[in-house]
Amino acid sequence: MIFTRTLLLNNGLSIPQVGFGCYQVRSSEPFFWALKHGYRHLDSAVFYKNEQQIGVEVKRAISEIPGLKREDIFITTKVPPNYQGYDKAREIIKQSLINFDLDYIDMVLIHHPSSSGLKHGDPKNKENRHGTWKALEEFVDEGLVKSIGISNFQSKHIESLMKVARIKPVVNQFELHPMYVEYETIETCRKYDILVEAYSPFAQFNKALVENKVVVGVAKKHGVDVARVILCYLIAKGFIVLPKSVHEERIANNIKLEGINLTEDDIKQLDELGKNNSLKVCWTSDDVE
Q1: Known catalytic residues?
Q2: DSSP annotation string for 130-169
Q3: 122 — phi, psi (to 5°)?
Q4: Secondary structure percentages of the chain, helix, strand, coil, to 5
Q5: 112 is annotated as contributing to ligand binding
Q6: What one-character DSSP code corresponds to residue 117?
Q7: Which residue ranges form the domains of the chain, and what is each CATH number?
């Protein structure tokens, strides 16, 4: 059965716990397939260069899927490093609103704590992201963006932002899967009631994860594929998950999670895989000022 659970954000709004990751999705059809098969959360970014395609497919879905309304669909985009700072952030968010053409954006994140053209140790990175946050807060005030958050922020970046934020981030999105867990970042998010979003939940299908004997064993036990075991594990931990595929069958399968009930022992075994943080496949923010 399709998984339709939502989580409550710290601003009182709700977010679907399973979203469709839009990174490297070049054609438009997968966005429609996702909506057709029950996804109500699409996670994009300026960097992905598919905001306009998503807007078109959302409008198509609303016209073709009985009962579906704009307010049923949660749309996320992100301000990239080359648009960090107050003025540039204002500019690019206005462009994103035009690209989607959906009246408003449900959530905008700062994609990374760094700024293009600056060394990671440059204190200007902090100044720029704080300026970006001010711009995001203004779009919330204007009603054009409903929620704002962060991505790839570690504890030090969150603590710094919280000193100047008028509106608290609702989520922090970063790489998270059974073989890579940022425990300190997760604890800081919990401290501030910031939900954790897991991108690259399959570690880009790295064999070290998807062929791991523990993961495969749990999948066989429940009679499902490895991908759904990973998603159910992350959901059980209380995280938002963002699976991605460009194949319709996989898109459909990745949200058929209802009724897959991992046991405490399953979760304990999978927890052990992340204790050495052995498999990071995406970009880092370790050294960003």
Answers
A1: 48
A2: HHHHHHHHHHHHTTSEEEEEEES--HHHHHHHHTT-SS--
A3: -75, 125
A4: 45, 15, 40
A5: no
A6: T
A7: 13-275 (3.20.20.100)
